[in-house]
Design brief:
Radius of gyration: 27 Å
Number of strands: 35
Distance between the termini: 31 Å
CATH architecture of the largest domain: Sandwich
Strand content: 25-35%
Largest sheet: 7 strands, antiparallel
Length: about 525
């Protein structure tokens, strides 16, 4: 089951509600058509005090305007032409959103849009037809980054259903009815987002990383697919959801268009001839009638060295693994991820290439510091899979993780690679090794960016820090009692979340040389 996640928009709004309570409204919807410099909302009338709103920040996460526009064709994840029902209100330079994906319009001819897919931190994905295409108001008032239109309240008008806020600078167009907006009475919404990211960068979580060894992006954690190329018409993409993402956060999906298509590592492996190497991959066949094949290929002599196959009949995640010897005349090796039919859709969760006698490896790039490392584990092979054409294929999770042996980071701050990982065990490598360690939570940028950090901890810690910043400003202005009240409120939030935080947070420990004093060494 995937970890519970919360998106940036929900986190920011939760913080605002704690931060500005009992002010109202904080999050609301427009109830009438405004102008480029005004927002109309019936609930404003009850306040009747201009000072409650003047100088507050107005932020519209998904502001829309113009004629409702819908798509009239289904889109795959790479198409750049989008046909719509009515393109009259769309112009080049607009940002538009279909479901959660943001696109930049680069050209328009009648109702045909040419777009750049997956911009502003969103991800290009497939979409069905007849979906709403929302035009994001970003011209003249957009905050740099991915925050939407932001303005400041300069005046108010309270008259029942016509109650409004006057704003500056002007929005690109009048906001439509039922447009969501937020009122931030003290801090710019960017400051709230930055505080959230500051907290995330100081929070730690446990990770289990397949130790890829000699192959770049073997753990599939790198953003994008530049480290993997495909043959012919086959396409590849990183996916972040589904049962094939067994370890880490991503898998590489290869979609075939012809039989026996494959992806292979972009950077050739250069391993000394005669070296015995352990090669393995975690794979799942998600579509098509062909098999999945892991192949070690001698690019120097254009011939296969060794293969392992998962038969098409088996549709769960499986481990392909073998040990091979680098040919005497091979100077370049590649790992090929093959689908044998033209309709195959195959997900590869990781690929590892490890010289069996090596003891010193490049430090896993996902771990930032030496103290982030915990230990090296391995997962025993399950029973061999024998259905169909399967060969050297094994079931997962029929054994428990076991400690491989002692290991430690080795540091050299003068080297290009400041850290390396040293295996102290004399055993030959014949299993997939996993590095257990600690990493920061990723920061958030786009509205739909999600975090697995517990939202109660994140919201309370960020709110407390912002209240402290506010208290410091009050103290510097000589309002000592007001500052003290705010500091007490911030402290109350921290005390309340303390037990939950201590239960959640992993101890980073203290670094002594290359070892760590944390009770686990």
């Amino acid at each position: 089951m995937a970890a519970q996640t919360t998106i940036l928009k929900a986190i920011r709004q939760a913080i605002a509600k704690k931060l500005y309570s009992p002010s109202y409204p904080i999050v609301s919807l427009t109830t009438g058509a405004g102008t480029p410099t005004s927002i109309v909302d019936t609930v404003l009338a009850a306040a009747s005090q201009s000072e409650d709103f003047v100088r507050a920040w107005v932020y519209c996460p998904t502001a829309t305007y113009g004629t409702p526009v819908t798509t009239v064709e289904a889109l795959d994840s790479s198409e750049t032409g989008v046909a719509v029902n009515d393109g009259i209100s769309v112009t080049a330079g607009d940002y538009v959103m279909v479901e959660g994906e943001i696109m930049l319009v680069t050209n328009k001819v009648a109702n045909a849009l040419l777009v750049t897919r997956g911009v502003l931190g969103s991800i290009a994905v497939a979409h069905a037809t007849n979906l709403s295409l929302r035009q994001l108001v970003t011209t003249s008032v957009a905050v740099s980054g991915t925050l939407g239109p932001t303005a400041r309240v300069t005046n108010t008008s309270f008259s029942g259903s016509s109650s409004s806020l006057t704003t500056a600078p002007a929005f690109a167009a009048a906001l439509g009815v039922n447009t969501e907006y937020e009122l931030h009475y003290k801090f710019h919404p960017r400051a709230v987002r930055d505080k959230v990211n500051e907290i995330l960068q100081n929070m730690r979580r446990d990770v289990w990383l397949p130790f890829a060894g000699s192959i770049t992006d073997g753990d599939m954690e790198t953003s994008g697919v530049a480290d993997w190329v495909t043959l012919g018409a086959a396409t590849r993409e990183k996916i972040t959801a589904g049962e094939s993402v067994v370890f880490g956060r991503q898998s590489l999906r290869v979609n075939n268009a012809l039989a026996t298509q494959y992806a292979e590592n972009t950077s050739a492996l250069r391993i000394a001839p005669g070296t015995d190497i352990f090669v393995a991959a975690l794979v799942q066949i998600n579509g098509g009638s062909g098999d999945a094949v892991l192949e070690l290929f001698d690019a120097t002599n254009a011939e296969s060295v060794e293969t392992a196959t998962l038969g098409n009949v088996y549709r769960g995640p499986a481990l392909l693994a073998f040990t091979a010897t680098v040919p005497a005349t091979a100077s370049q090796l590649r790992v090929r991820l093959v689908g044998t039919s033209d309709d195959n859709v195959i997900d590869w969760n990781f690929v590892v290439v490890l010289p069996v006698e090596d003891k010193l490896f490049t430090y896993p790039p996902t771990l930032e510091y030496a103290e982030d490392f915990d230990e090296v584990m391995y997962l025993p092979f399950g029973n061999e899979i024998t259905v169909g054409n399967s060969d050297q294929a094994y079931r997962l999770f029929e054994g428990t993780f076991q400690k491989w042996g002692e290991a430690q980071p080795v540091t050299d701050q003068t080297a290009i690679n400041a850290f390396r990982l040293q295996l102290l065990s004399g055993k030959q490598i014949d299993r997939v090794l996993f590095v257990k360690g600690l990493v920061d939570f990723p920061t958030l940028s786009a509205e739909s960016d999600a975090t697995a950090c517990p939202d109660d901890i994140l919201v309370d810690l960020a709110t407390a820090d912002l209240i402290d910043d506010w208290a410091q400003e009050e103290r510097e202005a000589g309002r000592i009692e007001v500052a003290a009240a705010k500091e007490a409120r911030a402290n109350t939030l921290r005390v309340r979340i303390g037990p939950r935080f201590r239960h959640f947070r992993s101890d980073r420990g203290r670094v002594v040389g290359t070892l760590r004093e944390s009770g686990r060494w």
